[in-house]
Amino acid sequence: LRRYIGKKPIYLVANKADTNLRAQGSGEFYALGLGDTEVFAISSQNGSGTGELLDAVVSHFDEVGEEEPNSGLPRIAILGRPNVGKSSFVNLLLGEERSIVTDIAGTTRDSIEAKYSAFGHEFMLVDTAGLRRKARVNEDVEFYSNMRTLRAMEAADVCVILLDASRSIEAQDVSIIGLADRNRKGIVILVNKWDLIEGKETNTARDFEAKIMEKIAPIAYPPVLFISVLNKQRVHKALEVIMEVYSNKRKKIPTSQLNDVMLKEIEKYPPPIQKGKMVRIKYATQLPTHNPVFAFFCNLPQYIPESYARYLENRMREHFDFKGVPIGLAFRKK
Q: Which domains are present in the chain?
């Protein structure tokens, strides 16, 4: 394959990435030395990651027919369990009843797209059907609703996960957030129905957020906001954070700036000695991928422990503000 680098598009596909741990481990394949070839972590079993792979492949095809007028706009998918207020949130943002809203869980059965253009922002908003656990999907219509929701997630740039404040965070919420993380999407967590929480004190929101972060660990980058669609509380703040996360997802760090910052951090705390081997990281650069992925060039990439990779990620988030966005790190031999 190395003979075709720069001549033909090459994509590496890491299959069986059915869990967060396996998806994060796909960065190891950058060590194969195929230039700036992007690695796609997918799961043939549940379909995660296949949407982005398909988008990348068809991007090389000649465009035929009418051009989609909204193709270049950011895509924001609203996700969550049934009856957490997704459709109400979409209707509030759009200022019109685009989605039917009832107290019956599962009213929305298909993904509904609408263009948002106000307050200096322009993007495609996708209202999706609530995702249930597989064991609770007991009819064909609901099965296909789930499939369309997953496809909407894969096509999105940012996934907005709505939680119900009155029910706290449940296993299905954790599963949805994990799925968005495996698909390498920007994530914003909105805790809706905050008005239903009685006797709120100074630490109530902080304790609730701490519980969320504990449940979704080791995913630690999504911002958490507390809103009330019914009372229109902090909805515009949520909109600002969503667009900030989208901007972070597209952020490019100049190589000189990246090395000025990160080499100082590496010098301050160098990689630990493994099996008597001393690892020396020479320089780093951002790869031209859809999501922020950084390559660190060193003499012994196989001896970089996971704990040190987490240290580097934390320092990068500290200096460059990648709030709401997953970061990929690859270690290559120099």
A: 1-65 (3.40.50.300), 75-249 (3.40.50.300), 252-334 (3.30.300.20)
Backbone angles phi, psi at 86, to 5 degrees: -65, -50
Residue type, 36: D
Indicate the angle between helix axes 255-268 and 306-320, nearest 10 degrees: 130
Q: Which of 253, 333, 261 is nearest to 299 (CA)?
A: 333
Report if pTM > 0.85: no
The percent of the chain in helix, strand and coil, each rounded to the nearest 5, is: 40, 20, 40
How far apart (Å, rounded) are the C-alpha atoms in residues 11 and 38?
Answer: 6
Q: Name the DSSP letter for residue 116.
A: E
* 269 vs 271: CA distance, rounded Å: 7
Please state, in angstroms and rounded to a whole number, the distance separating the CA atoms of residues 153 and 70. 17
Q: What is the pLDDT of residues 38-64, one digit of tens each?
A: 788 888 877 788 888 888 888 887 766
pLDDT at position 100: 43
The structure tokens listed for 17 are: 């990435």
Cα 317 from Cα 327, distance rounded (Å): 9
- Amino acid of residue 293: V
